[in-house]
Write a structure and sequence with these properties.
The chain is mostly beta strands. Helix content is 1%, strand content 54%.
Length: 494
């Protein structure tokens, strides 16, 4: 009998079972975490999962060994397991290649966030870090991927937008084996009094470099005081920065407005050319360009929302009618599409996607990392997809696919049920022009079985296959009478 070979999937998952932060808003109340682990092989795999509490106590098994069918996903709904309350990190061991996402829902203000697994590295960048900027404050969590030994050399360097000089350096931080440590950027005891570096309002905008001799994974929440808005995304390896970066979903007054934080982690300034291309279904059509200069070891923010620089000349990104300066709510007749960034230096980019109400009030917000050219691939794994799932919330996903090649392409979406791993009816393939995009909207999928667990809607996993290199993100939004915060995550490549 052949012995199974186990590999370790180190996931930047913060399993916050009961969270109360100083800046409570979207993160107010108890947090319910669901973790979807997807099998990326064509055969069955086994997974085992351990939770490592932040207080350094012994790791706890999350259930028993689970068998996951080919290309399907298993859901760990954390409240169903008898685990120690508090913050923990998760480590998944598997007998084959796997990836995952974590979705956290906060009961107090209907906040929600999703982020996907990421590769560990000794140098990790968080492309957007905020403190009290338009009510937004970041919490950064760093996981020690060494499950056998503690580390004590973690270095966090905070940079302000537009400045090459470090704002604050925190060194020689210790993290127990396998677990994580969190830093709230609003904590003045650690970060001091931060300058106002945003535009149009007070507060700090910047980025962070995190380093250690031991490979790390990093995750960030951004909480928005007084609203349901909270976002989640992962830090990315500094070495993955590229002179070509792709953002699959950009909006200007179309069910949201986006902003892009561009990080130049190099010793020389970068000139970045942005090309915005409208989706075929966008109310406003066309191709628009914008040029941005980013100082060495710094970041710059480009905003597609009301009063944003992308809407001003010479870019003139169209936003339709009825939205001006945030004085009125979205009218959803503007622009949505993609962005391609070409830079004279390697860069990293994160997109903040916000649904504004009247007077710039935030109705929902989500974040995703744009993909460097090296991350483009023909196959992408999507651990969580939905169609009208959960009573009242009726959570539904949209899958945005960006064909980054110079040739026309097509994309296929294969679905599996979340409760038994069986194949589910899949939607028709989509065509994409060169540098074009396509969207698979869960509300349009037909013939799907009802989730026996909730009795409402469908949930499962999926795989996008393109015949040219593509980039994929997933947006998870409520369509029922109870509105939850929106949440995005990046598709996972092999």
């Amino acid at each position: 009998m052949r012995k199974k070979q186990w590999s370790v999937l180190l996931i930047a998952l913060l399993l916050t079972l009961a969270l109360a932060l100083p800046v409570s808003a979207g993160q107010e109340g108890n947090a319910a975490v669901g973790v979807q682990i997807q099998n990326k092989t064509t055969g069955s795999i086994d997974i085992n999962t351990l939770s490592y509490p932040q207080d350094g106590s012994a790791a706890e098994a999350v259930g028993s060994t689970i068998s996951v069918p080919a290309e399907s996903a298993f859901n760990y709904y954390i409240p169903n397991y008898d685990l120690k309350p508090g913050k923990s990190a998760l480590v998944v061991s598997s007998t084959g290649s796997a990836g995952g996402i974590a979705r956290t829902d906060w009961s107090g203000q209907n906040g929600a966030a999703i982020y996907s697994t990421t590769e560990a590295n000794t140098s990790v960048l968080v492309s957007l870090v905020l403190s009290k900027y338009a009510g937004q404050t970041s919490e950064i969590t760093v996981q020690n991927t060494n499950t056998a030994a503690d580390i004590n050399d973690v270095k966090l360097t905070l940079y302000a937008r537009g400045s090459s000089t470090p704002q604050k350096v925190v060194e020689n931080q210790s993290i127990a084996k396998g677990t994580s440590k969190s830093w709230n950027i609003g904590d003045t005891n650690v970060w001091g009094s931060l300058p106002n570096t945003g535009e149009g309002t007070t507060g700090f905008v910047g980025s962070m470099l995190i380093e250690s001799a031991t490979p790390l994974v990093v995750q960030s929440f951004i909480d928005i005081a007084g609203t349901s808005g909270v976002t989640g995304f992962t830090g990315v390896s500094s070495s993955s920065a590229d002179s070509k970066v792709y953002c699959p979903l950009i909006r200007a007054n179309y069910y949201g407005d986006t902003g892009m934080s561009i990080v130049n982690n190099n010793g020389s300034a970068a000139t970045v050319d942005i090309t915005f291309r409208a989706d075929p279904a966008s109310p406003e059509q066309g191709t628009f360009t914008q040029q941005v200069n980013v100082a060495a070891n710094s970041s710059s923010v480009v905003f597609q929302g009301p009063t944003g620089d992308s809407r001003n000349a010479p870019t003139n990104l169209p936003a339709g009618s009825g939205q001006n300066g945030g004085s009125t709510a979205l009218t959803n007749n503007g622009f949505y599409g993609t962005a391609e960034l070409s830079s004279t230096q390697p860069i990293l980019v994160v997109v903040n996607d916000t649904e504004f109400g009247s007077g710039f009030s935030v109705l929902g917000q989500s974040t995703y990392n744009c993909a460097p050219a090296s991350a483009a691939a023909q196959k992408h794994y999507l651990p969580l997809l939905r169609n009208g799932h959960v009573p009242n919330q009726r959570l539904t996903t949209g899958v945005q696919v960006f064909n980054v090649s110079d040739s026309a392409s097509s994309a296929e979406l294969k679905l599996t049920n979340g409760w038994n791993g069986a194949a589910a009816p899949s939607p028709a393939a989509k065509s994409m022009a060169a540098k074009g995009a396509a969207n698979f909207y869960g509300g349009d999928w037909t013939g799907l079985a009802t989730d026996p667990g909730t009795g409402t809607g469908w949930f499962g996993a999926g795989i996008i296959t393109c015949d040219q290199d593509c980039i994929v993100i997933v947006s998870d939004e409520s369509t029922g009478p109870v509105k939850l915060d929106r949440a995005n995550y990046n598709g996972i490549v092999q």
